[in-house]
What we know:
Belongs to the peptidase C1 family. GO terms for molecular function: cysteine-type peptidase activity. It comes from Cylindrotheca closterium. The structure is a single chain. The chain is α+β, with helices and mostly antiparallel strands. The protein has six helices and 14 strands. Helix 2 packs across helix 4. The structure holds 2-acetamido-2-deoxy-beta-D-glucopyranose (2 copies).
Amino acid sequence: MLFSITLLLAAVPVALGRHDEYMVLEGHDVREDYHSPLPHTYISEDELPDNFNWGNVNGKSYLTHSLNQHIPQYCGSCWAHGALSALGDRIKITNSSKDEIDLSIQYVLNCGTHMAGSCHGGSHTGTYQFIKSKGHVPYDSCMPYMACSQESKEGFCQYVDTTCSAANTCKTCDTFAGMGGACTEIDYYPNSTISEYGTYSFMTSPKDIVHKLKSEIYARGPVATGVNAEPLVKYEGGIVTDTKLWHMMVNHIVSIVGWGLDEETGNDYWIVRNSWGQYWGEMGYFRILAGKNSLGIEMEVAWANPGSFTVNNYPCFENGENCVKTAYYKDPSKDLDSLKLRLAGEKTKKGGVRG
Ligand SMILES: *[C@@H]1O[C@H](CO)[C@@H](O)[C@H](O)[C@H]1NC(C)=O
Ligand SMILES: *[C@@H]1O[C@H](CO)[C@@H](O)[C@H](O)[C@H]1NC(C)=O
């Protein structure tokens, strides 16, 4: 009964409020595309630590910087923020690059309008399919976020060209126009590919969703996921425990970066990154009860692994020739020995705390 009701709620995209940013577009027809075994098939529940957060692994954060989708003007691009920040985090986790790598959300808004989304909504899985089918996504320094897409009439959007073109994929401007400057496209630019992506849902695995998600997050990194944004608008910190059925309808996309155990109640909670700025919530994050599909948080979970990404470029000239060298993504979950070593380390930590 419970599941048939939630199924109904999930299937009908009702515009109940201001936040209606989760939308699966017509061009998005491949929700999953992967071949590697999923981490819960080789990590048991009791191996996993009680507390784990990619924002603080032995004092180091593996998360890319916090974002705000709502400026310079309002744009409903949560789906691109959730999808690309989780992907960027997975690159950061590999330690391959000294510098943080942020991926271009504006490129997806410019070019992914039929598959991924626009300022008027989209999907995380559509973003992953779009990048995988296009071949790559440029780094953010090619095409920074402007909070505009072709249909948006908000703020300055009518004055900026957001059509999909080479110049709106990666570009530079050499000096002021009055001094003879011009803006030109860059044809070879640092970029990341996607090798695999997939989904998890409370609908198909209500009992072991926590084990599946913890394993995925621990072994490979943050995931993008849906949530109902309305009850979060006035969130002031703490653990959200709302399990009202009518609050489980997903209309917003965020990213789960870790979990914790609430000592008072004995309940697990997720640590979730939002894209409403650091003045919102707990420095831009919120915590929410795990395993009960609170606000629909476990309904629409998606993950993606990078394929190759640029870590070393040749200084680009304006014609953009021969700008890049290649590195390949090494999925940390494939190194079972070091994964088990990390997990064994958690056991010692647990023992330490309890004993
Ligand atoms: C990244 O580097 C840290 C040390 O700074 C190390 O503890 C961690 O295991 C490395 N991660 C991977 C995936 O190699
Ligand atoms: C993307 O980066 C790879 C290296 O990681 C490079 O070989 C390729 O040419 C780049 N693509 C574009 C369009 O610049």
